[in-house]
Structures are given as structure tokens and as C-alpha cells.
């Protein structure tokens, strides 16, 4: 327990002392005030510290966030047992030792059963409040922590995605200038055409690099334009073939992915007029395939690996679909997933975190409702019993609200802590997982 808890218990003791001293004490003197304060402090600190220690122990061994239902059941059982013992202990100290109103035999004979029972209900009220307060504080802390974590993940993913996209500018420019440098020496006229075409293509790069996804049609058109640049340099040494289904043109791929893969084909393979490099771009089973006949060249300088790695990472940030790579003695193929829409899996984690927070908040409201019901029960029922026994002790009508309302509280507990919609959802999920494992779904 914390220091503030002891301060609260002190103020509770003082408030209780003032109430009993001015309403119940006939002789209002310092001695009676001190005695009332001693008794009130005993009840407040023994019951308060006892329940606080139990709550702290359960928080360490079984936090609310890890096993809510088990923790709720264990809390109810523990506070019933603990408060029964604590109240009997305090009443024995009060009536037998401090006030000396009864002997030990009289106390356990049943004369003080009503007093004990009444005090137990008051103690249960305090315990229910402490456990409900502990639950709400922990759940609020955990849900806020989860939302913060989700937002940090999403921000990190956004930053990573932006970093990957920003690699495209220098990467494209560097490779294009290398090609242009070669053409200046080999064919100045072609170099001029290449420069004009490169400006158009680079405009597309600047337009598309900030997008998460582009249509297959846009990417194909850009790839064809880029292939014309490559043909300018390699002429008959490189051939290109585009076969894409019409229904796939309106679907989506990562922008500039084809351009990066086409660069890889040229970079890692030699091409001559006698042994031309054939690059095919075609759609197959919801994938966009880029395939070339394998004519691997020996690279003097090790590749930086920006192209293919960039594509793989950007797909990983946007979808669960994987980029597949196939390699044999004759060909090298990369399969890019064709997406039906514009998924934003990572970027929706902020919204998911907000939904999780709203769901947790709703859960808190449900449990607050249960504890409010339980607290009301613990307050009203003892009051009704007191009224019944003081006005008409022969006719015990208090059993009707005690049992009727008690059944309602028990039903409410089952609904909140497992035997309600949450239980049904768990059971449905369990059956679906079982059927999925057996191959029925």
C-alpha cells in the first residue's frame, strides 16, 4: 500500500469517529472521543490494510489484464473469507477486550451474530470499492500504454516507409546518369534523346514516389517508357515482352517496382546482339511477374542491394502478401503481389489502437456497473435487515430482496466475467480455430 492509502484511512477513521461521537455517545468528553477514535481507527486500518494487502498480492500474482475472469472470481472469494476473519477479529477486540461488554463465550454464542453480519457487509462494501478502483486504474494504465505503443509502431512504420521511398530518387538518378555517361561516349545523338526521355521519366518518379500504391496499368506504361530508354542504349541486345491480363490492369502494385526490377535485370546480366537478354513482364495468379533468361555477369563491385530489398520491405509494410523470387539455371523470376485495393495494414494500427481503447473503456463501464450493483446490494440489504429486525423481528421479509437481488448480482457477475457475450465470442473463436486446424474452413 502507498502512503496516500494510509492518509485516506486516517481521514476515514476521523470521519467515522466524529459521526459516532456526536450521534451515539451520551457523554461527550475527551475520554470517549479518544475511545471512539481508537475503535474507528482499528476497524479502518485493520480492514483497510488487510484488503489492501490482498489486493496488492493479487495484482502481483494475477494482474487484471492477464486473467480478468479468474482474478474477479479469486478477488470475490478472497474478500469474502478475509473480511469474515477481519471483522470477527475487530469485533472481538472491540466488545471483549476494549469495551468489555461481553466475554469470549458470550461473543461466540451467537449474541453478536447480527452485528458481525452487518459489519461484514460494510467491510465487503469497502473491499469491493478497493478492488474495483484497482481494476479500473490498472486497466486504464494498460489501455493507454497499448494505444501509445500502437501509435509509436505506426509512426515508426510511416518513417520507415518514407525512408524507403526516399531511396528511389538518388537510386534512379544514379543509375540513369551511369547510362547517360556511357551513351555520351558511345553515341552522342542517342545521349541527347536519352536525356530528353529521362526528364519525362524522372517527372513520373517524382509524381509516384509519394504514393503507397499505383495501378498496374500506370506501372506498365511507365515501364514501357523506361524500356525505350534501355533500348536506346542496348538496341538489339535487349528485348522486352509485356503480357498482362486486362482485369489486372486496375489492380495495384508498389510504385516504381517494375523500374527497379528492370534495372536489376540489366545490371546482373550481360546482353549482346548474339545472346540477347529477354525480359518478360506478365500477370499470373494475382502476381505481376518479371522474368529474364539468366545470363549472369561477374560484378567487379558488390551490389548495394537497394532495388529488390526496397520492394520487399515496402510490400511488407503495406500487406501480408509476400514477394516471391524464383531462380533456376535458365531463368530468374520475381513475383510481385497484385493487390485488389489499397491496404494500409500498418497505418491503420493507430485506428486499431483507438478501437482497442474504446473496447477497453466499454469493458470498464461494464465492470463498473457490476461493482456499483454489488456496492448498492451491500449497502441496501443490511439496511433492510436492520429495519426488518427492529420493527418486526418475527416476520423476516428481508429474505425476499436478499435472495432476489442476490441472484441478480450473481447473474450480472456471470455476464461480466465470462458467461455472457464474451464467453460466446470465445467459444465461437475456439470452434472456428478448431475447424480451421482440421481443414473444414
Automatic annotation (TrEMBL):
InterPro entries in alphabetical order: 2TM_dom (IPR025698), Bact_2-comp_sensor_kinase (IPR050640), Sig_transdc_His_kin_internal (IPR010559)
Keywords: Kinase, Membrane, Transferase, Transmembrane, Transmembrane helix
GO MF terms held by the record: phosphorelay sensor kinase activity
Domain 2TM: 358-433
Segments crossing the lipid bilayer: 7-23, 35-54, 74-97, 117-136, 370-391, 397-419
GO cellular component: membrane
A Pfam family annotated for this UniProt entry: His_kinase
Ranges where the Signal transduction histidine kinase internal region domain occurs: 159-237
Protein's name in the database: Histidine kinase
Organism: Chryseobacterium indoltheticum
